[in-house]
Structure formats: C-alpha cells, structure tokens
Write a structure and sequence with these properties.
Length: 427
C-alpha cells in the first residue's frame, strides 16, 4: 500500500467513509482519494510526494492559489492578537463595508461560517419577511445541506445517484418546489398557480454543482420579473460564483439586482467565512433588530475575516479579473480545439466564465441537469484517473466545475492541454 492508501484505510476507522465531506471519498470516480500535505501556488503535493496542478482549489476558495503570501501574512498577524472573541471586531466592519461597496445589491450583510449557513439563514429570513413558506429551487443546483434544500439536490448527491437525503422530514421537503433549470415556461406556470405562497426563489445564477451550466438570458430575466411581480424574495446563491466569475459576481454579469445574495468560498480565502446580505428592509428583520433569529459563536471570526479581506483586496487590483478570465478562456478554448480532433463519442467540450470552467465528456455544452446526466460518466472517470496519473488534479466527479487561480501560469495550462491530448488519444 502507498501512503495515500494507508491513510485512507486508517481514516475509515474513525471517520465515516474516511472523509469529512462525501465527494472527497472518490466514490463516483473510484480509487483512492489523495491526501494532501502541501499546497503552493497552483500546485498540491499528496502524501506520497506526487505533485499535481490543482484545478479544484479547495472547491473554489483559492482564487489566489495555495498559501498566497498576502493571505498568510494577514492571518498570522491577526492570530497574534487572539483567535476569537465572540464580540464585535473592527475587521467585521471593514469587510462588511467592502462587500457592500463591491456589490450594489448589498445594502447590509451578515457574516456566517459556511455557505450552508448563509443559504439556510437567507431562506429563513425570506420566509420571516414574506410570511410565506414555499421555496423554489432548481434541479441540479446545490445550496448546501440544510433540510429544506436537500430535495433532489445536486453535487455530492448527484455523484451518489441519490436524489434526496434520508433524515429530511417529508413535511419540510413538502415546502420546497424543484423546477428544471433554464425552463422559463415551468417557472411561469408555477408562479401563475402558486405565486402568492412563494417566500423565495433560490438559484445558482451560474450553476457550478452540476458541472458548469449557464442560464439563458430569458431564464435570468424571468426569475427577476416573476419574483418581483409576486412579492417573493430572489436569492442569488453566489457561494461558488461570488468573486469567482467577476468582481461583481454573476449579478454583475447578468445586470440583475437580487433581493438577497449568499457568498462563501472565495470570500473567505480558504478559511471558514461566508455571508448573506441584500436589501436593508429585508436584512432589518434579522435579530437583534427584527423577529428572525440567526446567530453564530464563530461568525465573523477574526482570522477568517483577515483571510477574506486580503483575498478581496488582491482580486480588486486592476487587471486581476481580466487576466484570470483570459487565462481560463484560453484553457477552455484549448480543450475545445483538442476535442475537435476526436469523434463525438470520444470527445470532450469545455466552457469558461471568469475563473471557473466546465469540462464535459460530451460533444456539446449542457444547458440543463438532464444534459449533464447524459454525458458519458464512465468515460469521465477514466479521463479523471488518466489526468491524475499525468499530474493534473481535477474535481473527482463529472458534476463539478473546475477553477483556475491567479497562480496558474501559461506553462501549467499548456502542460494540462498536452496531457489532455495524450489522455484522449489513449482512452
Ligand atoms: C459550496 C456551495 C454551498 C455550500 O457551501 P458550504 O460552505 O460547503 O456549506 C452553497 N451553495 C453553493 C452554490 C455552493 O457552491
């Protein structure tokens, strides 16, 4: 057994499945998960010392790459003055001001520690604000693991081919309505029939948990108009896309002002920080001002805030997003050029938005959960393992988007493209 295998065997003794989040177990692609011992820039090293170019980036947060000096400096400096107070700190004021400056839709914001907390809290707030119970979400979108959202959720669950979780009360799930992504007619029908019962519509405005799926313009416009017309709260779950697809997130790209926005991943720069915020009249319903309860011992943790601030400052530098977007697009273009050399049952396709990309084992770009389900999963698994052998670490599932960081350089991208060519030739 190599070191990864030894560690995975040992991990299963006292950790269910050997992992603290299911998709890490390589259940969908098979084989032994890599245990990492070091990350630097675009690279990670596993327990056996093998080096990989990392396109997962801790599932999105590491937009600057691993161990960025500015983030490390901010976190170490802050740690010297204490880890946590459970009382307000100046850093929280600074990051709240910055977030509200960066996102015009955000008048007020509250910090939490995970994306799951952000979406769960935003939904409770929307229900408290509207006095309604029904929630609308879309097939293939993942919004964390709160009960009311584990209704045909995507990501890890898709990977296990299990449309919902045990342990979620039927009564809770009954208030969640799941519609197909990009289906304007279904949305119109639903709002016509039940619009006055709907508290909130939550969406991944660019979906990244059923691989990368882009919304149509008509879908984006319909979500905004229908929620507005019926007095429902539009929640943009930008936990993945926030500061990943652009400085103003998906909402900036779409020209949409959502009522509430959820942030996570990049906003914490690799530490547990997330946030939800938006219209002041809605946020004013939160305790201690209003009747909607929400709290957290470690909310606004000083180290997480410091990592987040340092990350947001780096990505706000002139040219940062232009460079990241161009590099990620060049990568996707390169993948498509390689894909064009292969017959449709042996090919790949790709697309990029900002620093996020999708690679599909299918000849065309998917527009829905069904399209993604129809991609060749067995071929993806073979592709994934062959790339791993080549020293390229992609997400271990056909249903996950990938991420390029500022630390990836042209040589890394060229190497990855050459590896892709070799792998497709040999598959
Ligand atoms: C990752 C993710 C979440 C959940 O965030 P956690 O920090 O893992 O709880 C919610 N929504 C979206 C869109 C995500 O990508």
């Amino acid at each position: 057994m190599n070191r990864n295998e030894q560690l995975f065997a040992a991990a299963q003794q006292h950790i269910p499945g050997g992992v603290n989040s299911p998709v890490r177990a390589f259940g969908s692609v098979g084989g032994t998960p890599r245990f990492f011992k070091k990350g630097e820039g675009a690279y990670v090293w596993d327990a056996d010392g093998k080096k990989y170019i990392d396109y997962v980036g801790s599932w999105g947060p590491l937009i600057l790459g691993h161990a960025h000096p500015a983030v490390i400096e901010a976190v170490t400096r802050t740690a010297q003055n204490g880890m946590s107070f459970g009382a307000p700190t100046e850093g929280e004021v600074e990051i709240a001001d910055l977030l509200c400056q960066m996102l015009p839709s955000m008048q007020q914001v509250r910090l939490v520690s995970s994306g799951t907390e952000a979406t769960m809290s935003a939904i409770r707030l929307a229900r408290g604000f509207t006095g309604r119970d029904k929630l609308v979400k879309f097939e293939g979108c993942y919004h964390g693991h709160a009960d009311s959202l584990l209704v045909k959720a995507g990501s890890g669950l898709l990977t296990f081919g299990n449309p919902s979780s045990a342990g979620v009360p039927a009564a809770v799930a009954a208030d969640t309505i799941v519609l197909p992504y990009n289906d304007v007619a279904a949305l119109e029908t639903l709002f016509a029939e039940q619009g006055d019962k709907i508290a909130a519509l939550i969406v991944e405005p660019i979906a990244g948990n059923m691989n990368l799926v882009q919304p149509s313009k008509a879908f984006v416009a319909a979500m905004r108009k229908l929620t507005q017309d019926h007095g429902a709260v539009l929640i943009y779950d930008e936990v993945m896309t926030g500061f990943r697809v652009g400085l103003q997130c998906s909402q900036g790209l779409h020209g949409i002002t959502p009522d509430l926005t959820c942030l996570g991943k990049v906003v914490g720069g690799g530490l547990p920080l997330a946030a939800f915020g938006g219209r002041a009249d809605i946020m004013g319903k939160l305790a201690p001002l209003g009747p909607v309860y929400q709290a957290g011992t470690l909310s606004g943790n000083p180290l997480a805030v410091a990592a987040g601030m340092a990350t947001l400052q780096e990505i706000s530098k002139p040219g940062f997003f232009e460079a990241l977007t161009a590099k990620t697009k060049a990568f996707a273009d390169g993948l498509n050029a390689i894909g064009a050399q292969f017959p449709s049952d042996k090919t790949i396709s790709a697309q990029a938005v900002g620093g996020m990309f999708g690679i599909y084992c299918s000849p065309s770009i998917p527009h829905s959960y069904n399209d993604v389900m129809n991609s060749d999963r067995a071929r993806f698994n073979a592709f994934f393992h062959a790339m791993l052998e080549e020293g390229v670490y992609l997400a271990p599932s056909a249903f996950e988007a990938g991420f390029v960081s500022a630390a990836h350089d042209d040589i890394d991208i060229q190497y990855t493209l050459h590896a892709t060519q070799r792998v497709l030739q040999n598959l």
